[in-house]
């Protein structure tokens, strides 16, 4: 997928959209060569790349730095979305626009922002009218983890479900081209996906969203001990890489590497 139009096209054709997070040049070259549709420089880089326990520590400068690295790795092959990090879109229109400008100039093709309230819709409208495609993010919005009381499934009761449905519609009306639904019951995600014209991308939102997103390190099994119900790992990255490191160590220690083959005459 190369443009925002491809998202709508996929939804219209009932083809699933695949997105994974990516934060660096090397992985971006690999993902760009794969069938994955779209790369997300998630503010989850605060966790995966910088070791923080929440995404609150991601900054606009961090987002721009990682976006630029991914953009260099992916070239023009994939659509690149970058997160507006914690507070970057909450302090007023001008500062939100300045943050989005920095992230877009670093190489993103769209920005993603969390939440659904009047202020968010206003920012979304202004970004879209300024030529910046916007992906919404509802359900569990990790930047509000302390307000939500933890990383919990959202939309469990009728009132909360009605609110998320309304937020999704309002984001669509404001001009968002897509909405991420995180940690919500499958039935709710299915209803929202059916009711919206724009595509939804789910994570922990069941099989009936228009696409799926996973964090790259989770998908590759690199995040040892992180086994939420929604996650499927496609590689035992932690053990596979550890084994490679140990084999290298062992060969150096026992004089098996380098050999003549890896040496210059
Ligand atoms: O930051 C992130 O990785 C995300 C995905 C989980 C959707 O927002």
Low-confidence stretches: none
Helix content: 40-55%
Radius of gyration: 20 Å
The total count of helices amounts to 11
The hetero molecules present are: 3-methyl-2-oxobutanoic acid
Which oligomerization state do the chains in this entry correspond to? single chain
SSE string, helices as H and strands as E: HEHEHHEHEHEHHEHEEHH
Tell me how many strands there are: 8
The percent range for strand residues is 5-15%
Strand order of the largest sheet: 1-2-3-4-5-6-7-8
Mean pLDDT: 98
The gross shape turns out to be globular
- Biggest sheet overview: 8 strands, parallel, barrel
Structural class: alpha/beta
Termini separation? 48 Å
Textual characterization of the structure:
- With 265 residues, this protein is α/β, with parallel strands linked by helices.
- Helices cover 43% and strands 14% of the residues.
- The protein is built from eleven helices and eight strands.
- Strands 1-2-3-4-5-6-7-8 form an eight-stranded parallel β-barrel, surrounded by seven helices.
- α5 (93-106) packs across α6 (118-129) and α8 runs parallel beside α9 (186-195).
- It is globular and about 70 Å long.
- The model has no long low-confidence stretch (mean pLDDT 98).
- Bound molecules: 3-methyl-2-oxobutanoic acid.
- Residues 21, 42-44, 83, 180, 182, 203, 213, 215 line the site of 3-methyl-2-oxobutanoic acid.
- 3-methyl-2-oxobutanoic acid is lined by residues 21, 42-44, 83, 180, 182, 203, 213, 215.
